[in-house]
Amino acid sequence: MSVDWITVAAQIVNFLVLVWLLKRFLYRPILDGIDAREQEITQRMQEAVHAREEAETREQEYQDQIESLNLKQADMTETIRKEAEKQRDVLLAEARERLERERASWSIHLDEEKRKYTSRLHRVGASAILALTGKALTDLADETLEERMVQSLARRIEPMASDLRRAAGQAAEAVVTSHAPLSQAGQDAMESKLQEVFPDLSVRFEANDEQSHGLILRIGGAQLAWTVETYLDGLDKMIDAQLSSREGSGAQSDEQ
Amino acid sequence: MTLSPDQNILFEIWGIAINATVFFTWVVMALLTLAAAFITRNLRPDVPPGRWRTTLEVIVLGIQSQIEEVSGRREDHLLYFAGTLFLFVAVSNLLLVVPGFEPPTASLSTTTALALSVLIAVPLFGITSRGLGGYLKTYLEPTFVMLPFNIISEASRGISLAIRLYGNIMSGAVIAAILLSIVPFFFPVVMDVLGLLTGLIQAYIFAILATVYISSATASSQPKKDTQ
Predict the structure, then answer these.
(1) Is the CA virtual torsion B170, B172, B177, B182 positive or negative?
(2) Is residue B225 part of a domain?
(3) I want to staple B40 with a disulfide (CB 3.0 to 4.6 A). Which of A29, A168, A202, B152 is the partner?
(4) How many angstroms separate the CA atoms of B171 and B107, rounded?
(5) How far does A42 lie from chain B, in Å, by closest CA?
(6) Mean pLDDT in each 10-residue stretch from start to end of chain B (228 residues)?
(7) Cβ of residue A45 closer than 8 Å to a chain B Cβ
(8) Which domain holds residue B62?
(9) Coiled coil where (chain A) (predicted)?
């Protein structure tokens, strides 16, 4: 066993070289890497702390915003509710007004219908009365309705003679109009009656198919009518009274 | 059978004989350097460390913590020196199990070189730390009468280190060789396993003693300053 001093020197050099190599390739990279990693971790933790603080700040901001929005929402809800109530009142008023208008329109329509019904009833009633009366007179008394109406009118002339004379003034002609041309017997009866009351008047007979059945006597400004229409005026009043009573009872039942 | 690999000349370079001690020292150096360079070639702080890098970090931090425990402070230069001592001795001793490998630490020349390195490093670290006057003053402590004893003490440290390492490694290798010739199979394996253990223990003891010597030379100038 001996010491080779050349080898010793070589080994010292080798060892120093190894120290440098390991410092270069092992210790410094590892230690620097650890330091850098620690620094990185510290930096990331600081960033995380900052991020957390920022997140908390943002959270607080969002909470404030949410509270503000909730308040605004409550205000908006209240405003909308009031607006809706106002709108509802307006719509209700409009609806009531429209209902009133429709009711008025319906009333007008009802009146029109009533008038049409009355008119139709006039015509039908007049026709029926004329037919029945004419047939009854013809069958039972061998007379016509026009003749009977001439007689009836002639009876009415005399009580009203003073009024007619005053209304007639200076008229020189009396005009008798009928729906259909009067028979000769009817004309003669009428003319003789008028000659009795107004001897100075001439009598003229006319036919007017737009006039209702019956006779109308005109002397100047005076007029005496004896027609089915005037007869039916009473019937109209009766029908009006009947319809009014029906409407009253219908309204009561609607209210109930 | 040769007791020292110094006598085993492997080849010559430009007329210089390269013995097994130097050659296998180069092998260990190349192995350590290449492994370290390969593992640490792409270090980035944002990339998580792999298993090999973690292994190296454990080794380096383990050495560093041992040095801190002994010296009471973190000192990178001491880490380079003592850590390299430990790694070189440990790897050399562990490669004992490789067939044909002759551990350089089994050479008295190598252990002497390492001991001399420690012997030289102690005053260098001391002078670096305390200054030349401060270091020489330690030889006169506690009184100038102690000067020869302090010098003998310093010399005996290196000698004891060299003999300790050489004796353990060489004896392990020699005993394994003898047992291999007597009982070919079982006992050499057991002795090799034992040799691995004692090799690591010797590496640890060698590095720790070097650290103790160096830190004792530098301790008083920085009393516990960095330990907190």
Answers:
(1) positive
(2) no
(3) A29
(4) 11
(5) 12
(6) 68 83 93 92 74 90 91 87 93 87 84 85 85 83 84 78 69 69 72 80 86 78 43
(7) no
(8) 5-218
(9) 38-116
